[in-house]
Amino acid sequence: MIVRTSPRSLRRAAFTLLEMMIVVAIIVAIAGVSATFYFSQADEGNRTKAAQEMSQIRAMAVRYKLAKGQVPGSPGVINDWKGGEVVPPQSPWRTDYSISGSDTLQDPILIHCTDNAGKTFTLSPKGMNDPYSN
């Protein structure tokens, strides 16, 4: 018995180059959209973490100011005072936190940090200023 195959069935045994290019283009487009979403969420997480850490540093700076009568210059001063790492010395962007304020009890203590884009965040008694919300 002889089985004949048509030339058309032999040609459809594989994908064409155009079909493969369309699939690759769709995958690249999906990866681009998802990467943009992922990195924006990761940066939002860093901002939230920085706000929490700045709040912790401010609380410890107020305690230091009440105990010593002066504002600590950096989180390292608070850590030395407490004898260990009580507050983080660096922000999620690997930049140093800074503490400012005067030594009088009425003046507020401000905590500052800068992200990788050069935007400065400041935590005051009124709350956090977010340079990205403007």
Percent of residues in β-strands: 5-15%
Name the poorly predicted regions: none
Query: Mean pLDDT, nearest integer?
Result: 85
Structural class: alpha+beta
Largest sheet: 4 strands, antiparallel
Describe this structure in words.
By secondary structure, the chain is α+β, with helices and mostly antiparallel strands. The chain is 49% helix and 12% strand. It has 3 helices and 4 strands. The protein has helices at 7-11, 17-68, 75-82, and strands at residues 98-100, 110-114, 120-124, 127-129. It has a 4-stranded antiparallel sheet, with helices on one face. The longest helix has 52 residues, at 17-68. The chain is rod-shaped and about 105 Å long. The model has no long low-confidence stretch (mean pLDDT 85).
Would you summarize the structure shown here?
Helix content is 49%, strand content 12%.
Overview features:
134 residues, alpha+beta, 4-stranded antiparallel beta sheet, 3 helices, 49% helix, rod-shaped
SSE map:
Elements: H1 7-11, H2 17-68, H3 75-82, E1 98-100, E2 110-114, E3 120-124, E4 127-129
Antiparallel strand pairs: 1-2, 2-3, 3-4
